[in-house]
Structure formats: C-alpha cells, structure tokens
Amino acid sequence: MNKTILLFLLFLFIPFTSYSQTLSDTDAKTQVDRYLRAQSSFRLGQLYFEDEIFNNAIVDFTKSIKLNPEHADSFYYRGLAKDDIGYNNGTCSDCESASSLGNIDASELVREKCD
C-alpha cells in the first residue's frame, strides 16, 4: 500500500517539475527577447538621431524604454532628440530619468538646461 501511494505521488511530482522548468525557460527566453528588441529599437533610434530624423528617433527610443524602462541611454537620447525639436520640458524629464539611472552626460545636461 505504501509503495502504491509513493509511486502515485512520484507520478504527480515529475510532470509538475518538468512544467515548472519549462515555464522558467520560457520566462528567460521572453526576457532575452525583450532585451534584444529594446536594444534593436535603441540602435535604430540612434541611426535616426544621427540622420537628424528626430521624430522617428523619439518613436524608437520610446519603444526601447517601454521594453526596458531602465535603459538610461534611451532616455538620454530621447531627451536630446526632444531638445532638437524644441520640446524642452520633455528634454528635462527624460534627462532627469537618465541621470537617475546613472547616465553622467544626462546629469550635466540637467544642470545646464533644467535648473
């Protein structure tokens, strides 16, 4: 009797463990996918920024931020793009966010333009 119960419990436990492992693998893949998409959006935004197509740059930096809200450089460059189109409030807000995430260039820009 005890062996039957033990086998039954073991049978229940094995699929649960496999499912949990698969779930965590899926979560890791999702996180990697979000990171790569954020990086791609950031790089595309940089290309638009370099070509002075600031509205498109802002769109792609925003996508990057939505995918990775702790990407300081996305906030910084979006702030620079907003500055180039004359949206100063947006510049300060984005550069303050970038500064709080550790971007030193953003900290300097905040001191120059936003105080």
How would you characterize this protein structure?
The chain has about 120 residues and is mainly α. The chain has a single domain, classed as Tetratricopeptide repeat domain (Serine Threonine Protein Phosphatase 5, Tetratricopeptide repeat), CATH 1.25.40.10. It is built from five helices and no strands. The chain has helices at about 1-50, 55-65, 70-85, 90-100, 105-115. The chain is globular. The termini are far apart. The model is unreliable at about 5-20 (pLDDT under 50).
How does the helix and strand content classify structurally? Answer: mainly alpha
Give the name of the CATH superfamily. Answer: Tetratricopeptide repeat domain
Mean pLDDT: 84
Cα separation of the termini: 77 Å
What fold name stands as the CATH topology?
A: Serine Threonine Protein Phosphatase 5, Tetratricopeptide repeat
Number of helices: 5
Q: Indicate the radius of gyration in whole angstroms.
A: 23 Å
Tally of domains: 1
Number of DSSP-assigned strands: 0
CATH class assignment:
Mainly Alpha
Strand content: under 5%
Q: Which shape, going by the Cα principal axes? A: globular
The percent range for helix content is: over 70%
